[in-house]
What does this fold into?
Amino acid sequence: PREQDFYKIDKNGNIVTENNIKRYSHKNGATSAKGKEINGKKIGEWKFYSTSSCLTSIVNYNNDGIAEGDYKRFFCFKYGHGENMYNNYLSQTGNYKNGKQDGLIVFYNPNNGKPTHTEFWENGVFKRVKDIYDYNGNLVSSTGTGTVNLYKEDSKYLTAKLEYQNGHRAGVAF
It folds into this structure.
């Protein structure tokens, strides 16, 4: 909270503001999560952070405290600080339904913010790769056939190149 916010500390040492915004902390004191909490349930938009204060994800919760609706995940590199670090390069965007990934999930290249591929999920279960894009975000395949570039969450470097055929993994290229 900002200095002008009024807040209290709950029995676990977490900060709670007047409008039920709660802030959890990592052991090093950095914020780990913040959002509205009522009766122990996350409600509405919540932001999650790494131990180095890097924004790692934004997730929405329904009134029952279950992840529901759009979410965003961000790459978290090891330099800079705060929410504006790395311009919050998207790692992936997608949707939760009843607390599980559901529908189309888009994965991004941390070097230029362009999509790398999309995956189709149903009720928390991966079904197939749908679209594959080149380095510049140009669609290469809408049938899930081609090479998918995977990036580390904490750097701009490739983790692997995976070969897919008709939406299913066919091998490792790198």
Notes: The chain has a mean pLDDT of 85. The first strand starts at residue 7 and ends at 9. DSSP finds no helices and 16 strands in the chain. Residues 10 and 16 are 7 Å apart (CA to CA).
